[in-house]
Design brief:
The protein has 313 residues and is an all-alpha fold. The protein has a domain of 167 residues: MetI-like fold, CATH 1.10.3720. It is built from 13 helices and no strands. Helix 10 packs antiparallel against helix 13.
Length: 313
């Protein structure tokens, strides 16, 4: 296992390098002078001399490759720059907001696993029957609803009409329920569809046919025999979904007024705060890569037939 992890981490280094290049280009190639933007907080209009001094201080007179190396060196030390909008260090702002997004992603992932695997298992166990058709219809509706529209609909129904849940803010599970349901809607639908197809594929194999010939019930066969083997591709997909949830929470955090990194990125876009955007891209990209690695490790643990060297027994 350890050699596999070492090789996997080494293979991820070019990906992380590419993410850092993308984040740097995002700030370097966007319109506007970073020095002027940094000096223009609060409506202040800097002079040409002040802009020139700030450019020299920020290293903007250096060639682009040298600027990237200097920026990457600061990033490795944990310095993501200073926000043009707030004047605070970007790393401190991201770390202050990241727990909110992480809590939202964790609740959404829990709902995705519970609803997705549960619905997919029920559909496979009742293949071709009314339950299967109803679940298929629910999945299609989930996939067709835009996140922002579903969020507004849930606020209207559960907050404004029924008054069961708060409309916005960061607090306990009551505050996380509607945002988590919205963020997990498409992911749970995809998980349910993949779980159903993986289970039906397993049910067509010889060991399941032999088990059914011995009189084992379909529900027991699906849950105890087929589901552990079908969980490997589902786990890989869920790992990618976690990274997508962390990076795709902008709409949900904006609608429900959650102070996470998604709303921070949206504010950065509105104010042309390029250091904040660079930090956001770096953080979400790294989390996405590491969540994929975690999914690979869990998949190996679930399927003992796969050796760390990548060969099946």
């Amino acid at each position: 296992m350890r050699p596999y992890l070492i090789r996997k981490l080494i293979s991820l280094l070019p990906v992380l390098l590419g993410i850092s290049l993308l984040a740097f280009v995002l700030g370097a190639m966007t319109p506007g002078n970073p020095a002027e933007l940094a000096l223009s907080r609060g409506g202040y209009e800097p002079t040409a001399r002040q802009i020139a001094e700030m450019e020299e201080k920020m290293g903007l007179n250096e060639p682009r490759p040298m600027q990237y190396l200097q920026w990457a060196g600061r990033v490795l030390k944990g310095d993501l720059g200073t926000s043009y909008y707030s004047g605070n260090p970007v790393s401190r702002e991201l770390m202050r907001r990241f727990p909110v997004t992480l809590k939202l992603a964790a609740c959404s992932m829990a709902l995705t696993v519970f609803l997705g695997i549960g619905l997919g298992t029920a559909a496979a166990a009742r293949q071709g029957k009314l339950t299967d058709r109803i679940i298929g219809t629910v999945i299609n509706i989930q996939l067709s609803l835009p996140a922002f529209w579903l969020a507004l609909l849930m606020i209207l129904l559960f907050a404004e009409t029924l008054r069961w849940l708060p409309t916005s803010g960061n607090g306990g599970l009551r505050y996380m329920l509607m945002p988590s349901l919205v963020l997990s809607a498409s992911g749970s639908a995809v998980t349910a569809r993949l779980t159903r197809s993986a289970l039906l594929e397993e049910l067509g194999k010889q060991y399941c046919t032999a088990a059914m010939a011995r009189g084992i019930g379909r529900w027991r066969l699906v849950v105890r025999n087929a589901l552990p083997n079908a969980a490997v591709p589902v786990t890989a997909m869920l790992g990618n979904s976690l990274g997508g949830m962390l990076g795709g929470s902008i709409v949900v955090e904006s609608v429900f007024a959650l102070p996470g990194i998604g709303s921070y990125a949206l504010t950065a876009v509105a104010n042309r705060d390029y250091p904040a955007l660079q930090g956001y891209v770096l953080l979400t990209g790294a989390v996405y890569v590491l969540s994929g690695l975690l999914a690979d490790i869990i998949g190996m643990a679930l399927n003992p037939r796969i050796r760390p060297e990548g060969k099946k027994v």
